[in-house]
Design goal:
The protein is of the alpha/beta class and 235 residues long. It contains 7 helices and 12 strands. The longest helix has 16 residues. The chain is elongated. The structure holds cytidine-5'-triphosphate (CTP).
């Protein structure tokens, strides 16, 4: 029979040695997408990929089998099981669709372009004196598509906002039908090595005070682990 303090120590040992997401398959998207307009130009979103890469690293540290699908960034990929480089939103969607059936958890960190050029010009568009009108068509919302599959993995969305952070993030959580949304202010987070995050789930709001992105990523993985293990994960 163990004494109370020995028992506490044993529990502590177990908690330390069993990684939180041991064997779970985690699929992540990260970075921006780049939507070509012609042979040399395109439109994109401002995203360094740092948060997504940090979360991929934290998930791997937590014992998960990690697939990272990344748009174009200037970062060295973390040590994950599979790394897939993509360029446009359509490539990212295809890569996600090819992997999603195996995923237990989908974390959608990518700043996916909401629009792409209606027509892709194979040649460089030449400059002229007048205005140039560019027709854009919407891209598919990857997170919403995944979250509304008949048997979706546990889905985590991000909301990068410039104003009305919590309100807009809560709207996204409901609209995209995901149990957890991670909200941050775009102007504070883009390119920075630190961030302040607000997690919105069925229980309400949890603030992760400003810290390095890897520290935030580890905190987020702990929160995902807690929610993932709830009996009703949608709540
Ligand atoms: N997302 C996605 N596919 C898209 C657009 C967004 O998977 N085509 C995901 C992002 O990865 C993120 C979440 O949806 O997890 C919210 O993305 P965000 O850019 O903040 O919002 P949007 O839904 O694009 O709405 P808006 O641009 O109007 O804020």
């Amino acid at each position: 029979m163990l004494e109370a303090d020995e028992l506490a120590e044993a529990v502590q040992m177990i908690l330390q040695t069993v990684p939180l997401l041991q064997g779970k398959k985690v699929l992540l998207t990260a970075g921006p997408t780049f939507e070509a307009i012609d042979a040399v130009r395109g439109i994109s979103n401002r995203s360094s990929g740092k948060m997504g890469y940090a979360i991929a690293q934290a998930a791997a540290e937590a014992g998960a089998i990690v697939t990272l699908i990344s748009g174009p960034v200037c970062l060295t990929p973390p040590a994950v099981n599979q790394f897939i480089a993509v360029v446009g939103a359509e490539d990212m969607l295809r890569a996600v669709q090819a992997e999603i059936a195996q995923a237990d958890i989908f974390i959608s960190v990518a700043a996916v372009a909401d629009y792409r050029a209606a027509q892709l010009s194979q040649q460089k568009i030449k400059k002229s004196a007048g205005k140039l009108l560019l027709e854009l068509v919407p891209t598919v919302d990857i997170l919403e598509t995944v979250a509304n599959l008949p048997k979706p993995p546990f889905c985590v969305g991000f909301a990068a906002e410039t104003e009305n952070l919590e309100e807009n993030a809560a709207i996204k959580r409901r609209k995209k039908n995901v149990p957890l949304v991670v909200a941050n202010l775009a102007q504070d987070a883009i390119g920075s090595d630190e961030s302040e995050l607000i997690l919105l789930d069925g229980a309400g709001k949890h603030v992760l005070p400003k810290a390095s992105k890897i520290e935030q990523a580890r905190r987020l993985i702990k929160h995902i682990h807690l929610l993932y293990n709830l009996p009703n994960k949608k709540e």
